[in-house]
Request: fold
Amino acid sequence: MEHLRGKIVKALSGFYYVSSGGTVYACRARGVFRKEGVSPLVGDEVEIEVDGERGTVTAILPRRNELLRPSVANVDCLVIFASCAIPVTDPFLIDRVTALAESKRIQPILCINKTDLEPGEGLARIYSSAGLPVICTSAVTGEGIDDLWDAIRGKTVAFTGNSGVGKSAVLHDLCPELQPEVGEVSQKLGRGRHTTRHIELYSMGENTFAVDTPGFSSFDVDRMEYVPKERLQEVFPEFQPYLGRCRFQDCTHRKEPDCAVLAAVAEGKIQPTRHQSYVRLYELSSQMKPWEQK
Ligand code: GDP
Ligand code: ZN
Reply:
């Protein structure tokens, strides 16, 4: 028996596949987890006891965060692909995804692709001024691919973006041999809304893992979790300097008088599109029943 520490890269049919020091061990979970009501998740850092290539998960280390769709723990950053060439990305999509990432303490990174067609300087400016790392790439010229790699190296990364922006192309440039850590990619078990898929981390080398890349759709944006309206102001980082400075303590920063956030928008310190997205998300979140907010 050997005691190791590793990361769960796949969960399937009652086995947890744990990557440790370049080897993947097929592990069962100890019964005690079920009794305690915790079940290991893909992405969990775990302690295992191994005998050959088989083992047992004996402990789950504290989780830094947990996503619901896909169900995965300890995501370090979320790369949001966008494009200013066709298909042009709706900034609201970017804002919705960054809000969710911030709420989970996942670092959002904006990757503006297809810069060979459209440089996207305006979009880059909006998000740099909102405090987001912005990387401009082109899968055609190779611009920015090294910068993107530097930003994600050693991390567990989820990727998202509207269809056609070039996620597959950039990921291929980043890591041509993107491979599942375990065996071959399993087939989709069904189609449509209730498609069941297992979640998997793909090794990109240098201790870097990509979440669920076969369909390049880590996120189903329409079914994405909502950030509760009360918390929205916290997930727009550029609002921070103004919070607590409004006339009303419970200001929602939409149309109240003497609102410090609205004043900052008027002075050009907060981008109008970002504030508009905040208002839209606030209204969407207000319409949700509490049990729908997950
Ligand atoms: P995905 O749906 O986000 O995975 O997008 P794909 O990677 O499939 O790319 C969609 C289309 O855009 C393909 O025809 C790619 O060849 C093209 N494409 C991807 N990246 C770039 C780029 O940086 N520049 C240009 N000009 N075309 C690109
Ligand atoms: Zn306010």
Remarks:
- Residues 77 and 107 are 4 Å apart (CA to CA).
- The longest helix spans residues 272-287.
- Residues 182-196, 213-218 have pLDDT under 50 and may be disordered.
